[in-house]
Amino acid sequence: MLKPHYLLSAFKIFGKRDITYAPLSQTDRRRKKMNNNPDSLLPFDLLFEKLNIKVVSPLGGRLNQHWLVDFKSERLVLRRWYKETHMDDIDYEVKLLKSISELGWPVASVIEGPIELDGHTWGLFPYLYGEPPSVDNRAAEQRSRGRLMAEFHSDLKKLSGIGQRKGWRRCEEILSDYELDRLLSEHEMQNPEEIRILRWHLERARKRVEGMQLHSRPGIVIHGDFTPWNLRFQEGKLSGILDFELAHWDHRVGDFALSWRGKYDEVIYGYDEVSPLEPVEWELLTPMWWAGLIENACKYMKEGIRDDGWIIKKLLERSPLMGQDAAPYR
User: Fold this and answer.
1) DSSP-assigned beta bridge partners for residue 248
2) Location of each CATH 3.90.1200.10 domain in the chain
3) What is the dihedral of CA 300, 301, 304, 308, to 10 degrees?
4) pLDDT tens across 197-226, in order?
5) How far is the C-alpha of 314 from the C-alpha of 153, rounded, in Å?
6) Residue of 82, 182, 128, 144 lying closest to 273 (CA atoms)
7) Which long-range contacts (CB under 8 A, 24 or more apart) does 45-50 make?
8) Phi, psi of 53 (to 5 degrees)
9) How many C-alpha atoms does 61 have within 13 Å on its Cβ side?
10) N-terminal to C-terminal alpha carbon distance within the chain
11) CA-CA to 61 of 20 to 30 Å: which in 8, 22, 133, 225?
């Protein structure tokens, strides 16, 4: 009998502004509108026969879609990957979840799949009950989450055979990519102030990493979005780590990007209590954060999508942890 130890790791609380590097694009909004009736997308008869399941209710999603299903009186989760998701990306996440599960962490290792059916890729995952951590005391939650991340990283270092995810790169590769400069120049006439802000931060990030020899530094697989809404607790114990869609190989401080976001300093202090950061890692925090934001801004430009201001807002935020990088934009 299949036992639902873990909750599907693809869940997000959609609609919150600070979930990903950037807000929903116009393209994403159109896709979301198309997915408003997920039941209509299911090849019911084929899935019932193939997986012996019954749909209980739709769970939604931004691009990937999910359904709560019944399998022999047990609750599982059915995922339909977004149609444009490359199979390499799916295989990476499936392999990663299996490896992390074997380390004893509560993540959702695939039960069945990936399955090609009706022009889509499907997977069946365990379901786990649990609640996100309380954020009534935000500083305490952040510090606790930082400590948990450090413990998680300690085990992630043990993973082998999992390299870089397709389409991802570390900050030193981003900052040495002069295609970014070309894109900024191409769009300068249309958005002069936005481009000026992006270029100002790009130049400072490049200057900050000079001499750090980042290419020779070790890396680990990071979660990529270690936020309260991606954690589950039951009876005071961790019961689920969700959403590995942004997981990739990086510097360990790369995991602070969406958990710190340039302002939640207690996350980093909590991490440092368990696994002290090296001096160069403290120096890397801000240029690493800026590099990811700038890369995403340039991706939007290349795709012809206008950011609604989220990226620029994040670039302009300052924190005491930034040290000399806390100097205001001017």
Assistant:
1) 222
2) 138-224+247-326
3) 60
4) 999 999 999 999 999 999 999 999 999 999
5) 25
6) 144
7) 46/117, 46/118, 47/78, 47/117, 47/122, 50/115, 50/117
8) -125, 165
9) 23
10) 62
11) 133
Q: pLDDT tens-digit profile of 168-198?
A: 999 999 999 999 999 999 999 999 999 999 9
- Which pTM value belongs to this model? 0.84
* 138-224+247-326 CATH choice from 3.40.190.10, 3.20.20.100, 3.90.1200.10, 3.50.30.60: 3.90.1200.10
> CATH for 26-126, among 3.30.160.340, 3.40.50.2300, 3.20.20.140, 3.30.200.20?
3.30.200.20
Over range 19-23, report the average pLDDT.
29
Distance CA 203, CA 325 (A): 12
